[in-house]
Specification:
Helix content: 25-40%
Radius of gyration: 26 Å
Number of helices: 14
Oligomer: single chain
Structural class: alpha/beta
Length: 467
């Protein structure tokens, strides 16, 4: 099912019989350097991979374009614009993809000069998400993000935006411009989408509440896109989630139960992959989907250790987790994936670095290497996180009793002469939250680690990894 087209989309037809749209990828290099440490060539390669992830595109090539001083109206200088125009005509390019942010004015002027469609990085990612979203919630979130993006880009070469509607009443006046009318129409559509999304979110909350009654901890897989999360998820759960060597192969979250060593069972959650410069519209729109990560008892950060910029990717993931508001107290482990793609020298170096940290596991989701040790650690963390106690609540502690039932922490409940006896099984995070909400009736020592490992402790410092 084809989703609603985005603002000024390329003429891409997703039919296998259609002639693919020829695209050229350009990465503007400002020479000032990328503060993230990302090299221009690797950024270009990533954008080309993004273009390959969108069906119907024939990527003719890509170039890093030196850009000492970005032009406010055209992005590139006049000479470079003419040089690129000649290449566009010679190679019969139909779509230009800019690996960066392009202002509405720059986009309008470049499309006019080159006579082709143009998408910046945000527009390209939105197109991919629009093509991949499968669930009702995912479709609504992408449409909302697309309209938010489109609303800022009504400065076009479209002539109808310059028209004005007549005023009301006896005094004519200039009336409402078409651009104002279009913006108002977008605002109305966004309001409708938010209402629909609120209903879907409520349904998800009901599902989450139902899962909460099952006293199993939640383990969330996070990581940069194409790091191998879905491959790991499929191997551990036996599921058939789409797992391909492609950016954003998985968009909608999937949850399955997994049996771990020592008769430990957890709920494993696979989430959308992150990427550098993820559009703010998508971070906000997919917050409801990513709330599974916020509620997790343990996070496994899956990293592609064979990628030359794995450290940069890891920092991008941590930045997005921080933007989402993920609690620092959630225990985090790192799975250094794709070890099978390393050379013998790089493998030895990676093993030495991983051995110095107690939160890193080196292996491969494809071959199964190193997964047993990772599962043993997860089981150990979850066993330590789950504890069983008996709590006596006063008869008037109705809110505390309701809170425990909503969290699914109550195994058995009986009434005594001095109060209500509750047999509880809960995680460390649940105990800590209960102590914060009801300090006057919380058991002594609730929320403190019962083992030598502090679930909220920061991982040991590590040396940068450069394969």
């Amino acid at each position: 099912m084809r989703k609603k087209p985005l603002a000024n989309p390329p003429d891409v037809t997703h039919s296998t019989e259609a002639v693919p749209t020829r695209a050229l990828v350009l990465h503007p290099d400002t020479r000032a350097g990328d503060r993230s440490g990302r090299t221009p060539q690797h950024s270009l390669d990533e954008c080309i991979s993004l273009a390959h992830a969108l069906p119907g595109l024939d990527v003719a090539g890509g170039d890093v374009v030196r850009l000492p001083n970005p032009h406010p109206g055209m992005l590139f200088g006049k000479g470079k614009v003419e040089e690129l125009r000649a290449r566009i005509e010679a190679d019969e390019i139909e779509l230009i993809l800019i690996d960066g942010t392009v202002t509405p004015v720059q986009q309008r002027n470049l499309e006019k000069a080159w006579k082709v469609k143009l998408l910046d990085r945000t527009g390209l990612i939105l197109e991919i998400f629009a093509d991949r979203a499968a669930t009702r919630e995912g479709v609504l979130q992408v449409e909302l993000a697309a309209l938010t993006y489109q609303r800022t880009r009504l400065v076009r070469a479209w002539t109808h935006l310059e028209r004005q509607r007549g005023g009301l009443g006896f005094v004519g006046g200039p009336g409402e411009t078409q651009i104002e009318a279009d913006r108002r129409a977008i605002d109305e559509q966004m309001t409708k989408l938010r209402r629909q999304l609120d209903k879907v979110v409520k349904t998800r909350e009901l599902h989450r509440a139902a899962r909460a009654k099952v006293p199993y901890p939640v383990v969330a897989l996070v990581g940069y896109t194409n790091a191998g999360k879905s491959t790991l998820f499929n191997r551990l759960t036996g599921a058939d989630v789409m797992a391909r060597d492609m950016l954003f192969a998985t968009l909608d979250p999937t949850m399955r139960s997994v049996d771990l060593p020592h008769d430990t069972k957890v709920i494993l959650s696979d989430t959308v992959g992150f990427i550098s410069d993820l559009p703010t519209q998508l971070v906000a729109a997919f917050r409801a989907t990513l709330e599974e990560v916020l509620d997790a008892d343990l996070i496994v950060h899956v990293r592609d250790i064979s990628h030359p910029e794995t450290e940069v990717q890891a920092r991008d993931v941590e930045a997005i987790l921080e933007a989402l508001g993920v609690d620092d107290d959630i225990t985090r482990l790192e799975m250094w994936n794709k070890a099978d793609a390393l050379t013998s020298d790089d493998m030895a170096a990676a093993e030495n670095l991983a051995a110095r940290r107690d939160d890193v596991y080196l292996g491969s989701a494809l071959t199964g290497q190193g997964l047993d040790a990772l599962l043993e650690r997860i089981a150990s963390e979850m066993t330590a996180a789950l504890s069983e106690i008996t709590l006596t609540l006063p008869f008037d502690a109705g809110k505390a009793r309701a809170w425990l039932h909503e969290e699914g922490a109550v195994l058995e409940e009986t009434q005594g002469e001095d109060g209500i006896y509750l047999s509880l099984r809960w995680t460390h995070r649940q105990a800590t939250r209960f102590a914060a909400a009801f300090p006057e009736i919380a058991p002594e020592g609730t929320g403190t680690a019962e083992t030598g490992t502090d679930p909220g402790a920061a991982p040991a410092a590590s040396e940068p990894w450069h394969p």
